[in-house]
């Protein structure tokens, strides 16, 4: 097949994009006077746009996805080989890469037993919500059907997932939502909701218990949480928080669903974020970093005890999980995921994440000493948030437009960073950093230097 010569014309590509592509999370009015960004190549943490400009990506693809970096030929080769051998068969049948990856994945997740394949984090979370509802219908007389979710957490873009969205601006205008989803308070002590608490983790858990008792423990089927809140401000839990939550789940027979779509596959320096806190989940969902964006894949992982609730002897009953994911049957996903996992293991990327994460943390603390606009730095591994404030004493959040200018200044300097994006009214004031797990000391220092210069340019 021959392609038109215009495909080698950057100006024409930009115009085709401007005329026909609807970008995610974007107000297109801006493109009436400015070019949409178009990227053409990536290597490691580096991206090149259609005009040949090089940028350092500190966001792993804009949405914390490309964990092992760009340009991995071995993953492309694995996908190529699998697609030639067998590209697809519905998930009602098995496959070689699906079987092998499930086995390898579960080796990293003691206590978990089954993998259900899908193609996005939203879909993976929807599967859990459906499983919880079906368990309620078949084993609890329809009673334990409610799902608790946390303020500031995000679980996906579908209407079911948005029903569990703790970010008001992300779900605004899309209601009415699915009934039975109940919000619990966030656990960000810097924005304390329990001002007199001597033990903030305990106070947050006590508030959850009060909601459980208000709703009725016999009505609540599951609690859905990110191990570290991602897009809601990179919120690490206070001490004692997770221990108390697990106690509540055991006491009131509530299933624990951990959303690892962002934290999973090494982002925090462990295979999964929940493993930093000794959590024993009933469900774990994952997507983004599972194949580092080289193929679409998501996994809903459960214990054998959950799986057994959908398994009966009668062949004509309706107790099995009556669900399908069409592209959960695309075998590019597990093929890419297997090679992605091998790279993380063979290149020691969990250890590199811890080392480079410590360097990044130290650099950010240094910035905090030089810039009064930094109210708090929080995170783990290569997953950090910098909350910007107008006043450290009052903790008044910095205006969102100024935060956007800081991001823009970093981009002008050739470094891509993120921020809380139209998620939380008055609190879209956190810069977000998630460089690929292959980041070097030079990369980490450049990220810090670009933020340093941007803060100086925007705030003095």
From TrEMBL:
GO terms for molecular function: pyridoxal phosphate binding; transaminase activity. Keywords: Aminotransferase, Pyridoxal phosphate, Transferase. Belongs to the class-III pyridoxal-phosphate-dependent aminotransferase family. The keyword Nucleotide-binding does not apply. It comes from Gluconacetobacter sacchari. It holds the Pfam family Aminotran_3. Its cofactor is pyridoxal 5'-phosphate. This is Aminotransferase class III-fold pyridoxal phosphate-dependent enzyme. InterPro entries: Aminotrans_3 (IPR005814), Aminotrans_3_PPA_site (IPR049704), PyrdxlP-dep_Trfase (IPR015424), PyrdxlP-dep_Trfase_major (IPR015421), PyrdxlP-dep_Trfase_small (IPR015422). The keyword Translocase does not apply. Gene3D superfamilies: Aspartate Aminotransferase, domain 1, Type I PLP-dependent aspartate aminotransferase-like (Major domain). It comes from the Bacteria.
């Amino acid at each position: 097949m021959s392609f038109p010569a215009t495909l080698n014309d950057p100006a024409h590509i930009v115009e085709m994009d401007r005329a026909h592509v609807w970008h995610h999370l974007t107000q297109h009015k801006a493109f009436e006077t400015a070019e949409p960004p178009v990227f053409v190549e990536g290597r490691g943490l580096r991206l090149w746009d259609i005009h040949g400009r090089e940028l350092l990506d500190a966001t792993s693809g804009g949405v914390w996805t490309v964990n092992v970096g760009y340009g991995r030929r071995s993953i492309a080769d694995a996908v190529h080989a699998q697609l030639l051998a067998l590209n697809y068969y519905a998930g009602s049948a098995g496959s070689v890469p699906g079987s092998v990856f499930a086995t390898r994945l579960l080796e990293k997740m003691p206590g978990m037993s089954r993998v259900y394949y899908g193609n996005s984090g939203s879909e993976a979370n929807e599967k859990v919500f459906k499983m919880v509802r079906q368990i309620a219908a078949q084993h609890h007389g329809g009673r334990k059907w409610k799902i608790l979710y946390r303020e500031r957490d995000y679980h996906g873009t579908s209407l079911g997932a948005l029903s569990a969205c703790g970010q008001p601006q992300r779900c605004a205008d899309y209601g009415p939502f699915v009934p039975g989803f109940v919000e619990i308070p966030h656990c960000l002590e810097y924005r304390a909701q329990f001002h007199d608490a001597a033990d903030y983790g305990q106070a947050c858990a006590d508030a959850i218990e009060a909601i459980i008792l208000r709703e009725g423990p016999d009505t609540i089927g599951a609690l859905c949480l990110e191990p570290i809140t991602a897009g809601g401000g990179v919120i690490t839990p206070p001490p004692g928080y997770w221990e108390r939550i697990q106690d509540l789940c055991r006491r009131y027979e509530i299933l624990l669903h951990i959303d690892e779509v962002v934290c999973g596959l090494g982002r925090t320096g462990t295979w999964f974020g929940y493993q930093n806190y000794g959590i024993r989940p009933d469900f774990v969902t994952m997507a983004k970093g599972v194949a580092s964006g080289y193929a679409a894949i998501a996994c809903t992982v459960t214990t054998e005890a959950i799986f057994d609730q959908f398994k009966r002897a009668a062949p004509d009953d309706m107790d099995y999980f009556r669900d399908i994911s069409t592209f959960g049957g695309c075998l590019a996903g597990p093929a890419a995921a297997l090679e992605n996992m091998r790279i993380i293991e063979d290149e020691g990327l969990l250890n590199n994440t811890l080392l480079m994460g410590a360097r990044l943390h130290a650099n950010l603390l240094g910035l905090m000493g030089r810039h009064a606009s930094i109210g708090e730095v929080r995170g783990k591994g290569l997953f950090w948030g910098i909350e910007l404030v107008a006043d450290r004493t009052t903790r008044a959040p910095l205006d969102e437009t100024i935060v956007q200018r800081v991001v823009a200044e970093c981009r002008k300097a050739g470094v891509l960073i993120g921020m809380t994006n139209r998620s939380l009214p008055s609190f879209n004031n956190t810069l977000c950093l998630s460089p690929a797990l292959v980041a070097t000391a030079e990369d980490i220092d450049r990220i810090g230097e670009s933020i340093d210069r941007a803060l100086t340019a925007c705030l003095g």
